[in-house]
Amino acid sequence: MSTEHPGIARFRAELARRGGRGEVVVLPDAVHTAALAAEALGCEVGAIANSLLFDAGGSPVLVLTSGAHRVDVRALAERIGVERLVRAGADFVREHTGQVIGGVSPLAHPAPVPTYLDEWLARHEVVWAAAGHPAAVFSTSFEELREMTGAGVVDVESPPA
User: Fold this and answer.
1) Average confidence (pLDDT) per 10 residues, the chain, 161 residues
2) With the C-alpha atoms ordered 20, 25, 30, 33, is the resulting torsion angle positive or negative?
3) Tell me, what's the pLDDT at 60?
4) pTM of the model
5) Beta-sheet pairing, 59-66 with 48-56
6) Which of 55, 87, 97, 158 fits a disulfide with 72 by CB distance 3.0 to 4.6 angstroms?
7) Residue 24: which H helix or E strand, with range?
8) CA-to-CA distance for 58 and 28, rounded, in angstroms?
9) Which residues of 76-97 are buried (b: 16+ CB within 10 A; e: fewer)?
10) Which residues are CB-contacts of 70 (< 8 A; sequence separation ≥ 6)?
């Protein structure tokens, strides 16, 4: 009998179903920021794909952004063609992803969620993203992540002044 958290098990099954080749790693509970995750994994903070769920007028939008970036929600909303993006609350996140804040993976949601990838993640040979639990991550490549999620590639930062 497996003692693995159900969120991680669901993620593993979906990763396999989509042909993902990455390794799932469970990190110490104390790793709650991109910087701490990067330190634990021995990679650059920019290779950590933070999963940010936004509420776009009642519809979810998932943005996988480099841990080295902050999302400019106004600029991003304009780039993806929505009126407004608001950072989603815990209930909205759980409703649309089946996961909790801090553990939202790019896969294994109850229904498809429009997803966007920070173009800067392409600079890293290996990208690490959440695997269905706040302490779990998986390795992938930018291209594999794009293919598995059907994500659009976007600039998440502010436009130049």
Assistant:
1) 84 95 85 85 94 97 94 95 96 96 93 96 96 94 97 87 57
2) negative
3) 98
4) 0.93
5) antiparallel
6) 158
7) strand 24-26
8) 34
9) bbeebeeeebeebeeebbbebb
10) 156, 157
* 17 residue type, one letter: R
**Both structure tokens of 93:** 């996140």
Q: Return the pLDDT at 160.
A: 60
- The answer to whether the CB of 101 falls within 8 A of the CB of 130 is no
How much is the pLDDT for 36? 86
Distance of CA 83 to the CA centre of its chain: 22
Which residues, 6 or more positions from 108, have their beta carbon under 8 angstroms from its beta carbon?
10, 11, 13, 14, 15, 98, 99, 132
User: The tokens of 50 are what?
Assistant: 């933070």
